[in-house]
User: Which sequence fits this backbone?
């Protein structure tokens, strides 16, 4: 490669080109990072050179596995939990039946209510005499 003409001339009026300073290499953070990388390389601790896409895909896969495990843990219920759910459903059914009976009694005509009261009083009197 041919050198430019101004290098051969010793003309003091010419401004000689100088190599520009790279601000990245002169920064303290870059020097510390470079020093750390060199030390890791000497120890044999090379950083993982995975592409960013592969890193993202691995993170998604990990998140998916964690989510699946959580869902499975929620689906698997102990015998106690199953029994408690059954009891809770039975209690809810009983409450609904009681509410229906009360609504029917409230909507029933007056003579049906009086007849029911007479039956109860008649049964109570019969039990008291025994």
Assistant:
């Amino acid at each position: 490669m041919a050198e430019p003409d101004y290098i051969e001339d010793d003309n003091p009026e010419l401004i000689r080109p100088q190599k520009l300073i790279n601000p990245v290499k002169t920064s303290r953070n870059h020097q510390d990072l470079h020093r750390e990388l060199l030390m890791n390389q000497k120890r044999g601790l090379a950083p993982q050179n995975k592409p960013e896409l592969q890193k993202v895909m691995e993170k998604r896969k990990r998140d998916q596995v964690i989510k699946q495990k959580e869902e499975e843990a929620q689906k698997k219920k102990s015998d106690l939990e199953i029994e408690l759910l059954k009891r809770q459903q039975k209690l809810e059914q009983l409450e609904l039946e009681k509410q229906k009976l009360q609504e029917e009694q409230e909507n029933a005509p007056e003579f049906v209510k009086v007849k029911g009261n007479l039956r109860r009083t008649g049964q109570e009197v019969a039990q008291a005499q025994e």
Observations:
- The CA atoms of residues 109 and 115 lie 10 Å apart.
- The chain has a mean pLDDT of 83.
